[in-house]
Specification:
Length: about 110
């Protein structure tokens, strides 16, 4: 049985890194995910890039808000999350393509409460 993972990404002026970040998420080997991008008042092309991925993949949702800081952005993402598990990733980071699958396998195998 699969469990949905909500991935929340606070986005603030990270256009240089955002494509690599989002490609690493939409190409995960674990598919039961939602990707919540919270644009936190970016002044560069970050929102445009977020919207591009929202059009490309139905698992991507964009929230656009005035700048409130990373905690505010994460809280906005949490309010929209529908997954049983939450993963926070920053907009200038990326994860390995099997990261979520390996994590979920371990969580379920060991019956971890995290």
């Amino acid at each position: 049985m699969k469990n949905k993972v909500s991935i929340i990404i606070p986005v603030y002026n990270c256009e240089k890194f955002l494509d690599k970040c989002l490609d690493s998420l939409i190409n995960q080997t674990y598919n039961d995910i939602e990707i919540i991008l919270v644009n936190d008042g970016s002044t560069d092309r970050s929102l445009e890039i977020c919207r591009k991925y929202e059009k490309k993949d139905t698992r991507v949702k964009v929230i656009d808000q005035k700048n409130g800081g990373v905690s505010s952005a994460r809280n906005s993402g949490l309010a929209e999350a529908t997954g049983e598990y939450i993963l926070f990733v920053d907009g200038d980071d990326y994860i390995e393509y099997n990261c979520i699958e390996k994590s979920m396998d371990l969580i379920l195998e060991k019956e971890l409460d995290i």
